[in-house]
Amino acid sequence: MGFTPGILKAIQELGFEQPMPVQEKVIPLMLGDGGDIIALAQTGTGKTAAFGLPLVQTTDTEVNSTQALILCPTRELCMQITGDLTDYAKHTGKLKILAVYGGASIDNQIRGLKKGVHIIVATPGRLIDLIGRGAARLSAVTTVVLDEADEMLNMGFLDSINEILEEVPDGRRTLLFSATMSKEINTIARKYMDNPVEITIGTKNSSADNVSHAYYLVHAKDKYKVLKRIADFEPDIYGIVFCRTRVETQEVASKLINDGYNADALHGDLSQSQRDAVMNKFRNRNLQLLVATDVAARGLDVDDLTHVINYSLPDDIEVYTHRSGRTGRAGKTGISISLVHLREKYILQQIERKVKKTFIAIPIPTGSEICGKQLFNWVNKLEHVATDHKEIEKFLPEIKEKLASFDREELLRRVVTLEFDRFLNDYRQGGDLISPVSEKESSFGGRSGRRERDDREQYPGNYTRLFINLGKTDGFFPEQLIELVNSNTKGKKVPIGKIDLLKTFSFFEVDPAYADDLIASLNDAKFMDRRVAVEIAQEKTDRPRGEFSESKPAKWSDRRPERRSSGTGYERRSTESSERRSSGSPDRRSSGSFDRKSTGGSENKSRDYKRDSKFGKKEKKKYSR
């Protein structure tokens, strides 16, 4: 491709064999007389080498001034690019590259700049600070690279980028690399680039082709249970779990750690040293799961991720593209899994349209499937474990003696039981405690959450409510109800309305035209060896508010004594007075009320006193309603 022997040697040492698509298109333009370039490609498609290798070759090391500037959104990406460029320049002479970013000593960076550097790799905020201090001089820059441009704009660096580009000479070459093409990027291109060549790898604003997309439709309360099942079903998982907030990130990570998983959290509340420690553990694969927020994970460059798990879908649809781009890097395959709550179905549909990919619904792994997967994974490790430890030899005779009483099958059974104690306890009963989402709830057919309401409008007020002797404790959920109805009414499509699941029994509504036949069919059926009983539910006797019967219950009327008008004792409230009250007629309490004349000016005080003295405070509470 026109590289010098020194760069070719570095490429061979790094193990590069064939150029990636973005490299095949960008490198010839940069080595030639090409102008500005806009390259749209996903994270992990080889963009760093696409601009880094030509920059290393075209930079004049005899000139002690800054000739190239690379802007990127985060400290991690800044350090990664610097390390890659250093590797490319290993055999090319005295090329000086400096990374400047926040969270590190600015004094050391100023000293490095004063010595002279050929390429600066910087985050926008720190570079603005260094320009203000007069330490960074960009007057000789001939090439500017904006890497992960959409990420920088999402992080609010637009004003900083504008300010930096104003400091760079007009005749420079500008390269813009981004995963998506937004309005803001178009604005930068029109303002600072001259007839740029646009290169698109794949489909514009779409996800990478080697990343598959799937989702579990779950109830919100079951999200963590499903996450655990994913981790258990994939013993060799190495992935990032994305959450929406810092609090959620820490909660999920803490639960995983407490449940024995190799996981940790990455969010904005961590100090830089804590963040570096977590990332080192993750890069060294001491962690299998990194639970992170979008802001904290920006610019992360970790190879060989097998999974990206969206514990919560992002608020900004474009963020999904960056999340999924963390896996399937450098031509490898990956999967992006989303845990979708029922109310988030419409967001998933919007993401599908944005990334131009179809999301596949996958069933939640059962307890039996998880135990089987873990068992065979352990057997595979057992088969390939190294046994050349001489230290063990001296213990083998005694071990053989202790285990001599067990035959082969019993020994295997005991070893497997010991290894799988946690999984067998968690999933002993199949572990299927996750409430399945009903077929009605999971409909994605464009009507989203309105399906139930639309179905009801088709039969307004004409549903028949049925009782069935099965409930949640029987493992009976909407999915099982629908399957039971369908299997016993073959050839018929029975409209089902509202479903009310209780512990030991349930209610559901059907179109009355099918009610009698359905009752007859289901009463002959069985569910998990239990006979099914279905009948029409008894009507509720609802009484309008404010409406009273003509006579109150004795228990109530006996406990509401009233004083005679003469003030000589108590009598029960008359039936006539009750009838007047229930009919809405005013009750003037001519009888059965306190005599206000008998106590003169202190009638209120006397009345209150007599009530308290007659019943006492304790008795008064007893007679209250």
Can you describe what's shown?
- There is one protein chain.
- With 625 residues, this protein is an alpha/beta fold.
- It folds into 5 domains: 5-200, P-loop containing nucleotide triphosphate hydrolases (Rossmann fold, 3-Layer(aba) Sandwich); 211-361, P-loop containing nucleotide triphosphate hydrolases (Rossmann fold), CATH 3.40.50.300; 373-426, no CATH class; 448-536, Alpha-Beta Plaits (2-Layer Sandwich); 554-578 and 586-623, no CATH class.
- The chain contains 26 helices and 22 strands.
- The strands form 5 sheets. A 7-stranded parallel β-sheet has the order 3-4-2-5-6-1-7, with helices on both faces. Strands 10-11-9-12-13-8-14 form a 7-stranded parallel β-sheet, with helices on both faces.
- Strand 3, helix 5 (106-115) and strand 4 form a beta-alpha-beta unit.
- Helix 3 (47-58) packs across helix 4 (75-88), helix 6 crosses helix 8 and helix 14 (317-324) crosses helix 15.
- The radius of gyration is 37 Å and the shape is globular.
- It starts with a helix and ends with a helix.
- The model is unreliable at 444-461 and 541-625 (pLDDT under 50).
